[in-house]
Write a structure and sequence with these properties.
- The chain contains nine helices and ten strands.
- By secondary structure, it is an alpha/beta fold.
- Helix 3 packs across helix 4 and helix 4 packs across helix 5.
- A six-stranded mixed beta sheet has the order 6-7-8-3-9-10, with helices on both faces.
- The chain is globular.
- The chain starts with a strand and ends in a 10-residue tail after the last helix.
- About 2% of the residues have low confidence.
- It binds adenosine-5'-triphosphate and magnesium ion (MG).
- The site of magnesium ion has 2 residues, from helix 1.
């Protein structure tokens, strides 16, 4: 059984144009996508800007409400989940964003940033448990700090970084902070939305290698969104090629990159300007 199954997923954005919202325009950002992701797998999602990659990735986490279709995660119907179920599902499904500069609150210390998901989820759990177990959370401060130290080590940052602010770090280090925040709840599945696109090639390579190592250490499953064929070829088991809201081709990375069946995939492969992606 796959960890994640998507069937006929559709997202239509309605935009109001002109005065009084009379000229409504519909954008079919995702137009009937079906795919499965196996436990422990990395599926690459490639396609040109505006083809619907982010919309698809965010719908899986229900950060964007789908117009229609179905999403099954770990045997559960994501779109039918109650708010309590959704909260539990969100522990298991996280996202890493493209822009490490914009995605971290500049007024929060790194320790607050990386432990925030833990605080939010334990508050929700505590409010349910308090009646039965009034001492729940008594030593939560120390355990929060310990969790922060542990996850910082896992992403290759020194624990002294916890006392500092995002602007004190380089782009690559900030992305490590974003990864720490995404992984502190020990999710099963992570949507990586162009996590290295804003970084230099060499820094991006370090982050890609870190994601690979974390996948082994934490048993993660990834949906890795990118427009770079060399990156997905290196990192992903399979690649899905998306065009105008649809998957035009999906298969093992080697097949897709060496024997592309679709004209659009060939165009993407030829259009890749970056140098060949390097291993550590
Ligand atoms: N909130 C929104 N309202 C209306 N249209 C939107 C909205 N978000 C995205 N779109 C449109 O939906 C389409 C898909 O956008 P999306 O951001 O999912 O693409 P993408 O493949 O992630 O692009 P990029 O590679 O630039 O990140 C685009 O045409 C975009 O303009
Ligand atoms: Mg995007």
């Amino acid at each position: 059984m796959p960890l994640l199954s998507i069937r006929d997923l559709v997202k239509i954005y309605q935009t109001d144009e002109g005065l009084f919202g009379k000229a409504r325009r519909e954008i079919r950002a995702v137009n009937g996508v079906s795919l499965d992701i196996a436990q422990g797998e990395t599926l690459g999602l490639v396609g040109e800007s505006g083809c619907g990659k982010t919309t698809l990735g965010r719908m899986i986490l229900r950060l964007i409400e789908p117009t229609s279709g179905s999403i099954t995660f770990n045997g559960r119907n994501v779109l039918a989940a109650s708010s309590a179920e959704l909260r539990r599902l969100r522990r298991d499904m996280q996202i890493i964003f493209q822009d490490p500069f914009a995605s971290l609150n500049p007024r929060m210390r790194v320790e607050e940033i990386v432990t925030e998901p833990l605080v939010i989820h334990s508050q929700a759990a505590n409010s349910l448990n308090r009646a039965e177990n009034p001492s729940a959370g008594a030593n939560s401060k120390t355990s929060l700090h310990d969790s922060a130290v542990e996850i910082m080590r896992a992403v290759g940052l020194d624990e002294s970084a916890l006392r500092r602010y995002p602007h004190e770090f380089s782009g690559g280090q900030r992305q490590r902070i974003g990864i720490a925040r995404a992984l502190i709840l020990r999710p099963k599945f992570v949507v990586c939305d162009e996590p290295v696109s804003a970084l230099d090639v060499s820094v991006g390579a370090q982050i890609v290698n870190l994601l690979k190592k974390l996948q082994r250490d934490f048993g993660l499953t990834y949906l890795f969104i990118s427009h770079s064929m060399p990156v997905v070829r290196y990192l992903c088991d399979r690649i899905a090629v998306m065009r105008r809201g649809e998957i035009v081709e999906i298969g093992p990375s080697v097949e897709i990159t060496s024997r592309p069946q679709h004209e659009y995939t060939r165009t993407l492969l030829e259009a890749t300007p970056e140098p060949e992606f390097k291993l550590d």
